[in-house]
UniProtKB/TrEMBL annotation:
Stretch forming the signal peptide: none
Protein name: Phosphatidic acid phosphatase type 2/haloperoxidase domain-containing protein
Span of domain Phosphatidic acid phosphatase type 2/haloperoxidase: 101-213
Highest taxon of source: Bacteria
Keyword Ubl conjugation: no
Swiss-Prot/TrEMBL keywords: Membrane, Transmembrane, Transmembrane helix
Organism encoding this protein: Zavarzinia compransoris
Lineage: Bacteria, Pseudomonadati, Pseudomonadota, Alphaproteobacteria, Rhodospirillales
Gene3D superfamilies to which the protein is assigned, alphabetical: Phosphatidic acid phosphatase type 2/haloperoxidase
Amino acid sequence: MTGRPALPAVLWALAQDTLVETVRALRRHPVAYGGLAVAVALLILFVDRPLALWLHGVPADERWFFRSINEVGRSGWMFGAAGLCLAVALVGGWRLWAVRAGFVIGAVLMGGWVVNVLKLAFARARPRLLVKDGTFDFHFFEISPDWNSFPSGHSQAIAGFGAALACIWPRFAWVFLGLAVLPAVARMVMLNHYAADVVAGYATGLTVTYALARACAARGIGPIKQGENR
């Protein structure tokens, strides 16, 4: 007797499909992602160091706004809010809202996995090391909180969250994506990350979220229609 596949199997298949769709996105838009790679490289070579040193010299009281939103990119509250929505939707039998909440959780989570792999692979020194002793380097494949600057996980999380909301309510897409920029920029202003880290993290959040949306749509459960070009 056959029936519906178990939920863990569906989620695992979606995770695999999302990675496939992420690679397809890179192939589908080679000019855009090639330009992004060049922009990130230029930031690393010519902008990150002088900008970080300049920001270090800006008085703390002049950065109060960015300090106040610096931790908005933490994924904990996103999982908490979406998880609460999911629980209420399941209890109430509201399938649409359950799918939406699950999609938000998946978008932030999947992007986080990708970013953590990249952090390990690149192992870039944090700006605090530049300020401390001039260290401005990549070690590659090193596990250390001082060497996991690239890409920015906070930027990925808030971008993924904003992109997920944009998929659900496309009419307000630019509002969600625009608001997500502010906490991402705060990570740079407060010297948690370099500019290149923030750009790469934000782009990762967008790419993985829309890849997940396409993977879900192919199974008829996502927030966008199958065949939409995202």
